[in-house]
Amino acid sequence: MAGIFTGGYPISRSAPKCAATGRDFAPGEPIVAALVELPDSEELQRQDFAVEAWSQGARPAGRLFASWRATHQPAESKRKLLLGDDELLDLFEQLAQASEPRQIAFRYVLALLLVRRRVLIYEGAAELPAGPVIRVRIKRPGGAAANVDEPILDVADPKLDDQTIAAVIEQLGEVVGA
User: Fold this and answer.
1) What is the rounded distance in angstroms from the CA atom of residue 154 to the CA atom of residue 176?
2) Which of 147, 70, 85, 140 is nearest to 117 (CA)?
3) Tens digits of residue pLDDT in 3-19
4) 19, 45 contact by CB (below 8 A)
């Protein structure tokens, strides 16, 4: 499983134009960012779409790996985070039904990042019939009492070695500004 991330994830910042219409994005405009697997390649490419284009059915060429809602930040923007906690949580939740090894591994590492950012609360590990999992809960404002009502989410543990996890978290950190 360690070979899943050998190529890394060289994912760029938000594009200045909609991938479907070619229209320039305004600073702060809501967009849909998509990670796309390129044909005959292990690389992922980020493509950004205007929300209205996405709503009308525009999709990237290639196989959709994941998508999330974001806010366009021009390249010259001094904003540190490329993806905020809400956007990362949205991406994490979208990958809940993932069945491919790369997506499962990506979700696992994303869960570790969200625990590090204190967006998810680590509740332990378990061995289920489907395999090992880590258990997390979404942290909500309002203290511990508010978090008890959140369901525990099982995140498949793809059994990545420590070196691979560290490398992927570093790459993911570059992408999201962690």
Assistant:
1) 23
2) 85
3) 444 444 445 556 789 99
4) no
Round to whole Å and give the CA distance between 99 and 66: 12
Buried b (16+ CB within 10 A) or exposed e, 162-177: eebbebbbebbeebbe
Distance, CA of 23 to CA of 12 (rounded, Å): 19
Q: In degrees rounded to 5, what are phi and psi of residue 69?
A: -90, 140
* Cα–Cα distance for residue pair 18/33, rounded to 1 Å: 10
pTM, to two decimals: 0.56
| Angle at the Cα of 178 from the Cα atoms of 122 and 55, rounded to 5 degrees | 90
As beta bridge partners, residue 124 has 135
In sequence order, what are the beta bridge partners of 49?
32
Sequence-ordered alpha helix ranges (H) in the chain: 51-55, 85-94, 101-116, 144-148, 162-176
Report how far Cα 177 is from the mean position of its chain's Cα atoms. 12
Pairing of strands 63-71, 44-50: unpaired
Query: What CA–CA distance (Å, rounded) separates 138 from 171?
Result: 23
